[in-house]
Specification:
By secondary structure, this protein is α/β, with parallel strands linked by helices. It contains 10 helices and 9 strands. The chain folds into 2 domains: about 190 residues, Rossmann fold; about 90 residues, 2-Layer Sandwich (Pantoate--beta-alanine Ligase, Chain: A,domain 2), CATH 3.30.1300.10. α6 packs across α7 and α9 runs antiparallel to α10. The radius of gyration is 20 Å and the shape is globular. The structure holds pantoate.
Length: about 300
């Protein structure tokens, strides 16, 4: 048996609190019925291990739609060999409680890997958005975004939403999904939700639970570095190398931090820039604390 399927044996999840759908066919017929009734359907795609950041996406979905589906699927194809696919927290019971505490959702779509990849792995079909994955995380996570776009397109086809909500924390993912959605003609509105942060500025992430207290304390350097870079740009600095050096220096002040990248790119095309002329820019960081890889970003606008 494919090891991925051993981790996710297809089984019926029984519960009487929320409708849990595990098959694509049932999800599609449920979505079709909702849409036929004239309701607007929102999808919040997740890999589970829900935290306050996800719950904010759910609250936003409930504001913008009549019917909300949360998908929970730890997608194997977006993890490179050696990444934390096996260790990734799987907490369905806690996720159901968290969603209930946030006022409930209409459907949890929680397919098995077998349901999503009926011919095993790697799948025969994939969706790839070229060029936007060349820098930032894409330069370090071979195949990651192809795994994301492929599974998100499958989630779109299964859940048939009018609207899908993603966190801005994964800014590269969001930009790539926006482009895929337009180019593939999915007819789905994509909403990017602002980053939800802990009190010390740390962007919320399912991976924060891997951090020990000292790492968590030091991890505030990510948001501090980004704020500083945006501040420099706001104050008139136009040389990207100056912003990048300033971010590197702040990250280096945390003894447990190991920088993977600090970059400033065009927010739309995600291509590197050397000077800030007019437009919208994305400053982004990836930093390891031990084995835990954290990402964060901020966008800023330079007027013509
Ligand atoms: O952002 C995530 O949690 C995942 O990349 C997504 C969009 C649910 C696809 O697996």
């Amino acid at each position: 048996m494919n090891p991925v399927f051993a981790i996710f044996p297809p089984s019926r999840i029984e519960n009487d609190r929320v409708q849990i759908i595990q098959t694509i066919a049932e999800m599609q017929s449920t979505a079709d019925a909702v849409r036929a009734g004239g309701q607007r359907l929102a999808l919040v795609p997740t890999m589970g291990a829900l935290h306050e950041g996800h719950l904010e996406l759910v609250r936003e979905a409930k504001k913008q739609a009549d019917h909300v589906t949360v998908s929970i699927f730890v997608n194997p194809t977006q993890f490179a060999p050696g990444e934390d696919f096996e260790e990734y927290p799987r907490t369905l019971e806690a996720d159901m409680n968290a969603l209930e505490d946030a006022g409930g959702v209409d459907v949890i779509f929680a397919p098995s890997a077998e349901e999503m990849y009926p011919f095993g792995l790697p799948p025969y079909t994939s969706v790839n958005v070229r060029d936007l994955d060349r820098y930032l995380c894409g330069a370090f996570r071979e195949g990651h975004f192809e795994g994301v776009t492929s599974v998100v397109s499958k989630l779109f086809l299964a859940c048939r939403p009018n609207l899908a909500i993603f966190g801005q924390k994964d800014a590269q993912q969001l930009a790539i999904i926006r482009r895929m959605t337009i180019e593939q003609g999915f007819g789905i509105d994509i909403f990017g939700h602002p980053i939800v942060r802990e009190a010390n500025g740390l962007a919320m992430s399912s991976r924060n639970r891997y951090l020990n207290p000292e790492e968590r304390r030091q991890a505030r350097v990510l948001s501090q570095a980004l704020q500083h870079a945006a501040g420099l740009a706001g104050g008139g600095e136009r040389t990207v190398a100056v912003l990048v050096d300033a971010m590197r220096e702040i990250v280096a002040s945390a003894s447990l931090a190991r920088l993977q990248y600090a970059e400033v790119v065009d927010a739309e095309t995600l291509q590197p820039v050397t000077a800030l002329h007019s437009g919208r820019f994305l400053a982004a960081l990836a930093v390891f604390f031990g084995e835990t890889r954290l990402i964060d970003n901020t966008t800023f606008e330079i007027a013509p």
